[in-house]
Amino acid sequence: MTLAAQKAAAVQADLKGRPVYQLRGVSKHYAHGHIKALDTIDLTLREGTFSSVIGPSGCGKSTLLKIMAGLVSPTRGSVVLEGKPVTGARRDIGMMFQQATLFPWRTTVENILLPIEVRDGRAAAKAARGAAEELLNTVGLKGFEDVYPTQLSGGMAQRAAICRMLVTKPSVLLLDEPFSALDELARDFMNIELQRICLERNATAFLVTHSIPEAVFLSDIVYVMSSRPGQFVETIEIDLPRPRTVEMLVDPAFGQYVNRIRNRLDKGAFV
Amino acid sequence: MSSVSTDIPIHADGETVFPDTVWEEEVAFIDRIPRPIAMIGILIVFIAVWQGLTSFGIVSRIILPTPWETAKDIVFVGKNLFSGGYMLEAFWMTTKAVLMGFVYALIFGFSLGILVGETSFGERAVLPYLVAIDTMPKVAFAPLFLAWLGFGIASKVALAAFIATFPIVVAVAAGLHAADDNACMLFRTMGATRWQTLFKMKLPTGLPHIFTGLKIAAVGVMAGAITAEFLGGGNGFGELIRVAASQLNTPRVFSLILYLSLLGFALFWSVVWLERRLVFWHSSTVSGINK
Q1: DSSP symbol at A22
Q2: How far apart are CA A262 and CA A120, in angstroms?
């Protein structure tokens, strides 16, 4: 066990909650082991916690997310979700990407119901329309059910994508830089929305991001990742009260966390 | 800069007066002509030049009939067509060949396109052969189809389908590659099957490409059917044109081509109509060929 991994284990031992995701010794090598995109990653996500991984471009954080989602196989190691090994795409995972990826030939509500349509057929999707409308209502998109996505703004489209992710009631949310294509104002707003949704549902979430303030704002734990080999070099527990507010962005305690992560990234993560 | 500011007149009381800078944006004269007038104008110029060529004896009347002779023949052929004469039968024959050719082209085009676009087997092993055949002048295959399928409608359908298949294959394969990685990942996380991913995501995403290919195919299928009728006889419109041309009945050739173009128009615009219904969400449909 590396020093960082020991630290991670120590931090997580303090947190309560049932383990939802467990990764042990996950590595991903390319070019016959010459490129170590990920090197012996250990990670436990506990129920109801929000974790983030932050690191420079190309450090392997997106690869980590794909391995967790069962889209890519690790070279070595074990990924377990809800007690079952992940050996392929899993339907109990909700995922979000930088792009909303709404399909323009479907109305907003049809887009949200797509996962149900794929899983259980058209009739089931039709029956779930009420639930989808309720979801849209909670993210402030009431009245946009039958609007086509080309008429939605970037922030509205991402809110619809949140609804699509939630409609199947997944046990874990994997978020791949979901708001990094949005402007600053929309982004702050979306972070508050996301926090509210996660708190309401006691959701277990894992976020990949480039933004240090975003990671601190949303997370219970932030993992700082280095590149080549992709490893967790520091695990930082964010001990700020919830729900967090925009005012806290200028709080000294918030700033200290941001600085600590920034220093860690400057020092080692880019080497 | 200072010279600019001194050009602005300053009143005696020291107040600057800013001149109006509202000015006429230039639009070329030719772009200001209203559309109906522009279109009718072109037609009038065309007919005038045509009339000139014939009445001044620049081109022999045997080769190029006058507009008036042609107009009379257009009316004659029209009467025959709309009263259900032998020309209508020929027209219907060609229409059948064109439509059947298009349907076969759709079946082969989509099947091969999906094979090439979806599987690396298709892309690596099948596509090279398709490209090789596509580079050949396909009309040259007409004698083969006639030898194999005889002088009936089958050989016309075959050549029409053969010509129209390739643009559909290329368009479908390209369309299937248009889906982005996130959309593919999203479908995988939803646990979608390969067919679900194909029909719910990849094909709809590729529709703008696919319709481009269908429009090319709609034009090609006409060319194929008529070429086969020129070469292989039968009872279609192509045969009527060939006979009229061999008798130097040029007004008839012109009027037959005009009515034939109606068939091509109908097919092409059916495709465009379908495109507008299905691809209403894409910018190419909104700003594409005429609104």
Answers
A1: E
A2: 46
- Structural tokens at position B153: 């409608």
Judged by a CB distance cut-off of 8 A, whether residue A112 touches chain B is no
List the strands of the sheet with A172-176, edge to edge: A93-96, A172-176, A205-209, A50-54, A221-226, A231-237
Cβ contact B281–A148 (<8 Å): yes
pLDDT value, residue A231: 86
> Do residues A230 and A37 make contact, with C-beta atoms less than 8 angstroms apart?
yes
Q: Does B274 reach chain A within 8 Å, measured CB to CB?
A: no
Note the pTM of the prediction, 2 decimals: 0.81
Q: What mean pLDDT comes out for the span B188-193?
A: 90
Which of B81, B106, B104, B83 is closest to B92 using CA atoms? B81
- Rounded to two decimals, the ipTM of the complex is 0.84
Distance CA A32, CA A168 (A): 39
User: Does the pLDDT value for residue A35 go beyond 90?
Assistant: no
Residue of B16 and B106 predicted with greater confidence:
B106
* Contact check, Cβ <8 Å, A118/B204: no
Smallest Cα–Cα separation from A209: which of A45, A13, A59? A59
CB contact under 8 A, A89 and B201: no
Q: Which long-range contacts (CB under 8 A, 24 or more apart) does A244-249 make?
A: A244/A195, A244/A217, A244/A218, A245/A192, A246/A188, A246/A192, A248/A217, A249/A188, A249/A213, A249/A217
Judged by a CB distance cut-off of 8 A, whether residue B287 touches chain A is no
